[in-house]
Every structure is written in C-alpha cells, then in structure tokens.
Amino acid sequence: MMIKKIAAATAVLITASTLAYAAETSSTVGMRHPITGADLNALTDARVGMIKAALQLTPEQEKYWPALEEAIRARAKNRQARLERVAELRDSSPTEVLRGQNAVELMQRRAEALSQRAADLKKEADAWEPLYKTLSQDQKKRMAFVTVVAMRGIRDTIERRIESEDDDD
Known about the structure:
Blueprint: H1 2-29, H2 37-55, H3 59-62, H4 65-89, H5 94-98, H6 103-134, H7 137-168
Helix pairs in contact: 1-4, 1-6, 2-4, 2-7, 4-6
C-alpha cells in the first residue's frame, strides 16, 4: 500500500513539475502582449526567407527546397498549437490544472506531445538531408552563421522580456 502511495505521489510530482515549468515559462516569457498566431506566422515566413537567402541555392538545389520548406512550416504550425495550449494554462496554477486529473493520463499526453515533437524534427531533418548533401562549404558556413544569429536573437528577446517583466514588478 505504501509503495502505491509513493508511486502515485511521484507520478503527480513529475507531472506537476512539467506543468509548473510550462506555466512558469509561459508567464515569464508570455509578456503583457502575447505573441499571436499572425506573429508566429510572420516569424516563420522570416525564418524561411532568411534560410533561403543565406543558402543562395543553385538551380540544382532548388528542387529540394519545397519539401524542406513544407517540413519547416509544419513544425512551426505544430509548435504554435503547443504554445496556444500552454497559453490556455497560463492563468491556472499547476494545482488547479491537476485537480481532478489522472496523473498517468497527463504523463501519457506529455509523452504523446514529445513524440509529436520528435516526429516533426525527424521530418525536418529528413527534408534537410538531400539538400544538405549538395551544399558547398560556403553555404554550410552561411547556414551556421544564420543559425547562431537567430539563436542569439531569440535569447536576447527572451532576456529583454524577462528584464521588462522584472522592471514592472
């Protein structure tokens, strides 16, 4: 009996920690003016355009682009759906979210969500592979540069939002 109680408590804590992290992340990064679906679509358009411009594809490489762009957009669309679900939980505490919920079902849903993210990433990697094999060293360097710049931009944006939230408190 004690083992069952410990297992149940562990399951609830594992699940609650995931939800607490999601709620904390969304409230910290979730600004006063949340990012809209249109904003995310614009960011995806910009990302796709930036990648394509940086690569300067040859006519031979262009044939690989449509599959890659589709995979990038599909992954972004699924990411947007996940962010919208997290935003719905933003105003609820993890305790409220867990009240009346089955911890095992929550873990199963989390596993399904992670599986979907893995499938999206695999699809994008598979779409990249044939194009990447044809890239010159210069194209690979430009791609690495664009990736670093984009990551810094994302990090800086998050840091500014956190700082502005701290200043408002």
